[in-house]
Write a structure and sequence with these properties.
Structural class: alpha/beta
Shape: globular
Largest sheet: 8 strands, mixed
Radius of gyration: 18 Å
Number of strands: 8
CATH architecture: 3-Layer(aba) Sandwich
Strand content: 15-25%
Strand order of the largest sheet: 1-2-4-3-5-6-7-8
CATH class: Alpha Beta
Oligomer: single chain
Helix content: 40-55%
Length: 302
Amino acid sequence: MDERFCTVGDVELCYETFGDPADPTVLLIMGLGAQMVAWHVDFCRRIAERGFQVVRFDNRDAGRSTYFKSPGPSMLQMLTRRTNPEYTLSDMAADAVGLLDHLGVDRAHVVGASMGGMIAQTVAIEHPTRVLSLTSIMSNVGDRLRGQPAFAVYPVLLRAAPTERGAFIEHVEAMFATIGSPDPADQDVADLHEMAELSFDRLSRKGPGAPRQLAAIIASGDRRRALRDVKVPTLVIHGTKDRLVRPSGGRATADAVPGARLLTIEGMGHDLPRMAWDRIVDAIAENAAKGALVDRAVSARA
């Protein structure tokens, strides 16, 4: 891995790029507690082969990026939604924009999965001049009634990850057995095992960051009203078998953004299985092409 680092304010971000830097940039933002390696190398390369520079990075409090020192909210605080967050999704969106600044990228096609979709939406809301197109995958708009986890998922979601390597890998595999695509034919067992190994080996020993990220999600509230002002071509992707962010979250996102396209993938859970890669990459590339056309039209009128 060709990992590099940049500093954005008080945060150091670890990132990696694929493809030609002269090509338009696709910025990939990962979800809660996940590292950039959850965007599989082969997936990143498929996008790069479409004529893009692909950038993936560790969010703050994940992987090899900066971890914060606060203990994070208690389970009771998270369940009652009464938290005192270390930061918000706006701060995480500013991290993403700071990475674009570091790379010399004026505008990017922003793609986010799960919490990363929430961050991507926030980038489009708060930094609209930096976004060419928006893709929100298996995410929601912060509405308490839609896109919420199935109750059976909570015990797995809130369980602390073990600190021993083998137990950590088993924990990740068990978690995705619960939230991932349910059909065994759609499960990428080898990919998941590799991702779990990489995640453990890259993991900071400063303590888990997911509770602080979850507090940021809770504190950031409902984005529906703000999403009405998003002007860039927007794609929403959601699996029909997602138990962590249920499909109503994807529908709510598509309803919130004027002109958004909703792509529903039959059988996909809260993961990015290889069986869905062709459809996802095709859709991202198509949405990016719309974004480029809109950008050229706006530039021509200026």
